[in-house]
Amino acid sequence: MTARADPPGFAADRDTFPKLLEHAIKQRGDRPAFREKHLGIWQTWTWRRWRDDVHAIAAGLLELGAARGTTITVTGDNRPLLYGALCAAQCIGAIPVPLYQDAVAEEMAYVIDHAEAGIAFAEDQEQVDKLLAAGARTARLGRIIYDDPRGLRDYDHARLTSLESLMAMGREALAKDPERVRREIAKGKADDIGVMLYTSGTTGKPKGVMLTYANVMVTAANAVAFDRLTDRDEILAYLPMAWVGDHIFSYGEALVAGFCVACPESGATVLTDLREIGPTFFFAPPRIFENLLTQVTIRMEDAGALKRRMFRYFMDHARRVGIDILDGKPVGAADRLLYRLGELLVYGPLKNVLGLSRMRVGYTAGEAIGPDLFAFYRSLGLNLKQLYGMTEASVFICLQPDGQIKVDTVGPAAPDVAIRLADNGEVLVKSPGVFKLYYKNEAATAEAKTSDGWLRTGDAGVFDADGHLKIIDRAKDVGRLRDGTLFAPKYIENKLKFFAFIKEAVAFGAGRDMATAFINIDLEATGNWAEKRGIAYASYQELAAKPEVYDLVADCVAQVNRDLAADPALAGSQVRRFLILHKELDADDGELTRTRKVRRSFIAERYQSLVEGLYGDAPRAHIATDVIFEDGRKGRLEADLAIRDMPAARPQREAAE
Fold first, then answer.
1. What angle do CA 186, 191, 196 make, to 5 degrees?
2. Segments forming the whole domain that contains residue 383
3. What is the pTM of this model?
């Protein structure tokens, strides 16, 4: 029988993650805790082995002079020993601060300086190079500990220490004093700061969100119980360790439930590794699910005519009855039999190709998922659900219970969470997960919480008749067109991004006469479409400028306008003009956050000439843009961009008349 995980509560022997790890050894010491694919082979850490490595790292940190209350950064791809470094810092009372692995040196320097971190863990040479560059900008960083030694042999090791040698140092110290780390662990308390996670910086400089052990452990325990997760489940950890979602799912819930965390070999092999692992518990932002569907679409275009017809036939049937079957609703015997045949011929093989054959529970969050995209996966029999959360609430604010899934809501309040709406529609929250404070920012902390303790989410929402919350947009972004029509830019952007050919969208319209949009095409999907039609191109910029691509995107915009026309409150905010940007929006250029959220105000300022062009009469607009290439070089792109006018769609009833 599968063992159920006990919520940690606040028992003195389990009120921090290092203490909970000791408890896990007693329950499942020889079960897999982590897997890592290295040189094509999956390596396994049992809970006992991982605990021993964690204690060795912790003892090594003590030998380096790390102390309770100090901050230690961790950066790199998801690796068992980097999660171990995070836990090791907690063992000695230090505060781990994960950094985004794709952050540039300047961004790292800001966090290191602000967090006052003196020790940094790095995965490999790439991260070491950035940390050394960051160290040149701040005097705080004294020691860099690296995991992968490749390429670092000829570096000046005055500030560098290999993780292997640190662990050897720690094991030597523990041989002399076996209880040294355990004495430090015993000093930890539930209300201590367990981790500091920096916000994405959508509207300004990132803020250090200080979460206690209780914040993370209670919310993780509630989520584990909510979805009945056990130590037999498995998750693929591929999202940034600096993101609160990964910290909850791949660290907090893993320690609470005792399930195994699998780390892919690299970012380039995630989809292959996903298929090999076949996780039972899977989380991905909508963009990942969009990318998976794009791969399916491309493959089906390359398939033979018979296979395409069979795929379309059974997918049409799945859309009719698949979700009802998943939710346990009545479905006729003939339809069930046909669905089972579809499972054998189409749905099962498709889920296997996607790596989701074993998925028992799946979540998406971060952005609203397109209703058709959401329905596609659920119609396959995949228990995909939405959640609503934020860093300052330790993720969980709303969760969708099984059998109560609605595409346009994020579900009712999660366990132990209270929600109310302010007079302006802003969602306010109280829960055990609400953060303690922003580091060195009392003013921002006071602004984030009301005088009576409610967390301001910054999101505008409404409740439906069943008490499920529907998020409209960021409260500050919801506006009106000049004629008073409601304008919710994120809602429009998410509808546009459902289409496989559109990777990103930025909508404008507040205070204007009409809604307009910038579009980023998806290079892979659009490029594949173009190649099949003999449309030659040499770069993203060249492909984006093709009239045929404009026609393709115009069809997508027209469909969005038809959807908006069906909603009386939003019918007036249809997209009336758009252009396709000459470059992809990039976090390195400041246009996106590290969690891929659009920085709309920054983009509006950076591309002001294009915004004004959308609201003028000219059919084209000129832009010159400074860009940063992957190797750090700076360059300049210039282009004359076409602007496409779009007619307004009428509601279906009106159009029929």
1. 100
2. 286-432+443-474
3. 0.79
Q: What is the pLDDT of residue 149?
A: 95
Q: Which runs of E-coded beta strand occur in 279-324?
A: 281-283
- The amino acid present at 160, given as its one-letter code, is L
**What is the phi/psi pair of residue 77, to 5°?**
-70, 165
Residues 320 and 360 grouped into a single domain: yes
CATH number at residue 83: 3.40.50.12780
Three-state secondary structure of 246-272? HHHHHHHHHHHHCCEEEECCCHHHHHH
Evaluate whether residue 457 is within a structural domain.
yes
Question: Rounded mean pLDDT of 517-542?
Answer: 93
Both 316 and 399 in one domain: the answer is yes
Kindly report the number of other CB atoms within 10 A of residue 361's CB atom: 20
Q: Which residues pair with 507 in a beta bridge?
A: 517
113-138: average pLDDT: 93
Burial string for 437-461 (b: 16+ CB within 10 Å, else e) reads bbbeeeebbeebbeeeebbbbbbbb
- For residue 632, is pLDDT > 70? no
Closest to 289 in 3D by CA, of 386, 200, 224, 202: 386
**What's the CATH number where 603 sits?**
3.30.300.30
Does the residue 451 lie in any domain?
yes
Indicate the number of domains in the chain: 3
Q: Are residues 505 and 450 in the same domain?
A: no
Mean pLDDT, the chain, rounded, equals: 91
| Sheet containing strand 32-38, strands side by side | 41-46, 32-38, 260-263, 234-236, 281-283, 361-364, 384-390, 395-399
